[in-house]
Amino acid sequence: MIVSDHVIQKNTGMALIVKKGQIIRVIGESTADFVVFNRNDVRERFDQARTKVDQGKIYVSTGDVLISKFNNVMMTIVADTYDGTHDMEKGMCSTSFYEKWGDKVFEIYGGTWTKIGRRREAAPDHGCWENLTGALKPWQIPMEDVPSPLNIFQTMVIDGETGTMRYAMKRPKPGAYMDLRAEMDCLVGISACPEGGRGKELRAVVYEGQLE
Ligand SMILES: [Zn+2]
Q: pTM score, two decimals?
C-alpha cells in the first residue's frame, strides 16, 4: 500500500515521515542526498562514521543498515537495483561550495574539476545543504545539525592505497531504486542534488507491505 508518492524537483529538498516498518523507495538517475533523524528525538541523526565502522566497510547496499550517532539502527536497505556504489565520504554541495568553483582550492584534487568541464559561471546558486535545511525547518533542525548524508546513486572511485577519490560520473539506469525500511520512526530528508547542473528530479515513494 502506498502511503505517499512525491516528485522532488531538481535542486530542491523534501522532508517526510517514514514510520517504523514502512519502506521508502528512492528512485532516480542522479544523486539523492539522504539524511535520517529519529522522529521522536531529532537530536538523534544518521552518522556516516558509525555506519561505516560498525559494518566494517565504506559502501552500503541490500542488507546493510544506517546507524545513528547514538549507535542505533535507523533503517535497513532492503533493495538496491543500482549497479554502482553509493557514497558515504562526501558531504553536501552548498552555496559556499559552488562559490568556490573554479578556485585554486580544487587543483589539489588533480584537476578533476577542469577535466569534467566545470565552469564557474555554470555553478548553481545553492545546493543540497540549503535544500535539506529548508525542508527540515518545520522540525527546528538548525543548518549545522544536518548530518553528512548517504549520497544515494553517487559513485566514487576510491584508491585504497593512497586514499585519493574522485567522482566516477556513473549514472543510474532509468528506474534504478533503493528501498530503505525504517527501524524506528524516522524523519527523512532528501535533496535532489543539482550536481553542478547535471542533476535530475527524484521520486520518493513511502509504502507498507508490498509495492504493486
Ligand atoms: Zn548536492
A: 0.91
